[in-house]
Amino acid sequence: VNDEIFILDAGLKYPETDQLGVDVVVPDFEYLIKNTEKIAGVFLSHGHADAIGALPYFLQQVNVPIFGSELTIELAKLAIKDQPVLKDYNDYHIINEKSEIDFGNVKVSFFNTTHSIPESLGIVIGTEYGQVVYTGDFKFDQTAESYYRTDIPRLVEVGQGKILALLADAAGTEGGADSVNESKIGDYILETFRDNKKKRIIVAAVASNIQRIQQIIDATAATKRKLVLSGNDIENVVRTAIKLKKLQLPLPESQLFVSLKNMKSLVAHETVILETGRMGEPIKHLNRMANGEDAHIKIGSDDLVFITTTPSTAMESVVAKTRDMIFKQGADVKQISTDMRSSGHASRNDLQMMLNIMQPAYFMPIQG
């Protein structure tokens, strides 16, 4: 815009099953590296890997400012902290839904969206030709808690201006129907915990899905169990969210959490193990557990493995194989059924509503 580059998110994706030896897939930065002096900044919509995961790789090549909400910035810091070359990087700028940043002829503003992590933001770039609206990952859910609620009046306010282009999340449109709202998912998780009183429960979830983690914490407390955080990624995310008061603890930490080391002091069915795997990819680590390769957790006949994440298309075959391996260990497996799945992405109806509000001259689907 006016010879300035505004980067909207810097995410990664996980490889397809046939991409052997590949851990993650990141964008090609060549053009941006050649035009570093034109970059106004990286504007982050939320704190998931598909929005912040490429930062450790990108910031090794260029030194540019990063803008994001408080939680998103803290998660971005966690993402790059293991890169020694970036230990001195500190060009972070915390913004919120009320922020407006003036870059001369271009103004950048924001609006709250509903996603599976608090402080998700849409981004509005004002130009002389009209506004460019980037939704980030979003959906509409009128039952969402305040941390997750879309600011509809603000959307309408933005839409009353001239919208040059809408860059919108379309990842959930192929599914057709709206997804189940999160309050029903929370009830389903609690019901599962209550129905398995004599089982140790191993829950597979995505580390950065704060909404799901809140539901697991609530169900753990309600069934008088203690929660084990399995791995540094989930430990860091939970501690950060607690510090920023984006996770609400129903009990004091000492009554709610137990370490992996002290887990053996409890009766097995009194514990819930929250397993998220490396880089928030839970299924691959669950596969290692089922193979007996985890040093701390062995899956057995007294366990219920509860998969609360919806696998990507690339991971569906891995999930099926993992389920078979868990069954061979004598454990029960439960996975959120298709009719109970809740997506963090816009359905067809959500996208239609966003289009109706914005009435853009141009529409660009950016996922899906």
Task: Note the topology.
Elements: E1 5-8, H1 30-34, E2 39-43, H2 49-52, H3 55-58, E3 66-68, H4 70-80, E4 92-94, E5 100-102, E6 107-112, E7 121-127, E8 130-134, H5 152-159, E9 163-169, H6 182-195, E10 200-204, H7 210-222, E11 226-230, H8 232-243, H9 253-256, E12 271-275, H10 282-290, E13 303-307, H11 316-328, E14 332-335, H12 348-358, E15 362-367
Parallel strand pairs: 1-2, 2-3, 3-4, 8-9, 9-15, 10-12, 10-13, 11-12, 13-14
Antiparallel strand pairs: 5-6, 6-7, 7-8
Structure explained in plain terms:
With 368 residues, the protein is an alpha/beta fold. The chain folds into two domains: 5-176 and 345-367, Ribonuclease Z/Hydroxyacylglutathione hydrolase-like (Metallo-beta-lactamase, Chain A, 4-Layer Sandwich), CATH 3.60.15.10; 182-340, Metallo-hydrolase/oxidoreductase (Rossmann fold). Helices cover 29% and strands 20% of the residues. A six-stranded mixed beta sheet has the order 5-6-7-8-9-15, with helices on one face. The chain has a five-stranded parallel beta sheet with strand order 11-12-10-13-14, with helices on both faces. The protein has a four-stranded parallel beta sheet with strand order 1-2-3-4. Helix 4 runs antiparallel to helix 8. One of its GO terms (molecular function) is metal ion binding. Residues 18-193 form the Metallo-beta-lactamase domain.
